[in-house]
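Bump. Still looking for Nitrile hydratase subunit beta structure tokens.
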Amino acid sequence: MTDAGGLPLGTTVSVIADWPEERGPCHLRTPSYVRGRRGRIAAHLGRHPNPEDLAFARPAELRRLYHVSIPLSEIWPGEDHPNESLLVELYEHWLQPHGTPS
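Sorry for the wait, here they are.
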């Protein structure tokens, strides 16, 4: 499922390796251990108010939210985790798509 302009299921994405907490107070829903990692769009969860703005009582635009499946080997390289993945809820502005869905 996708909405106009959304990322199709199966799209390979990288989680943006940004650290806004180093620039001052912020509220993040993106775990640090998945930043810079690759995964695939597993589900579209609709549009929701951006919690990064809601936390500071700012007007919050609607943002697309996805389930992203990240292989455990992306998070813990060198460990033996064949066919195992972590499912994380991530907002689209934290994702960089790569190519077309497979």
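The chain has one domain: 12-98.

Edit: fixed formatting.
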